[in-house]
Write a structure and sequence with these properties.
141 residues, 1 helix, mainly alpha, coiled coil
Length: 141
C-alpha cells in the first residue's frame, strides 16, 4: 500500500504540475491574445493610414490629369495665338505693300499735278495774252 500511496502522491504532484503548466499556458495564451488584439488595432490603424494615402494618391492623380489637360489646352491656345500672329504679320505685310503702292501712286499723281499746274499756268498766261489782244482789238475799233 505504501507504493500505491507514493504512486497516488506522485500522480497528485503530476496533476498539480500539469495544472500549474495549464495555468501558465492560459496566462501565456491571454498574453498572446492581448498582443494579437494590439496587433489587430495596429493593423487597422495602418490600413486606415494606407487607405487615406491611397485616397490622397488618387486625388493627386486626378489633379495631375487635370493639370495635364490644362497644359494641353494652353499649348493649343499658344499655337492658335502664334497662328493668329503669323496671319496678322502677313496681313500687315500686305497692308504695308498697299501703303507703299499708294505712296508711289501719290508721288506720281503729285508729279502729274505739278505738270498740270505748270501747263495750266502756261495756258492761263496764254489766255491772258489772248484776252489782252481781244481787249486791245476791241478798243481799237
Amino acid at each position: 500500500m505504501g507504493a500505491a500511496m507514493r504512486k497516488l502522491e506522485e500522480m497528485r504532484l503530476n496533476v498539480a504540475n500539469k495544472e500549474e503548466e495549464a495555468a501558465l499556458v492560459r496566462i501565456e495564451h491571454e498574453r498572446i491574445l492581448k498582443e494579437l488584439a494590439v496587433a489587430r488595432e495596429e493593423l487597422e490603424r495602418v490600413k486606415a493610414e494606407e487607405t487615406k494615402k491611397l485616397q490622397e494618391i488618387k486625388k493627386l492623380e486626378r489633379e495631375k490629369a487635370r493639370v495635364a489637360s490644362e497644359k494641353i489646352q494652353v499649348h493649343s491656345d499658344v499655337n492658335e495665338i502664334q497662328s493668329d500672329i503669323k496671319r496678322m504679320e502677313q496681313e500687315m505685310d500686305t497692308v504695308q505693300q498697299d501703303i507703299d503702292e499708294s505712296l508711289s501712286k501719290i508721288e506720281q499723281l503729285q508729279v502729274q499735278l505739278a505738270r498740270v499746274r505748270k501747263d495750266n499756268a502756261i495756258v492761263c498766261k496764254k489766255n491772258d495774252k489772248i484776252e489782252a489782244r481781244i481787249v486791245a482789238m476791241s478798243t481799237r475799233r
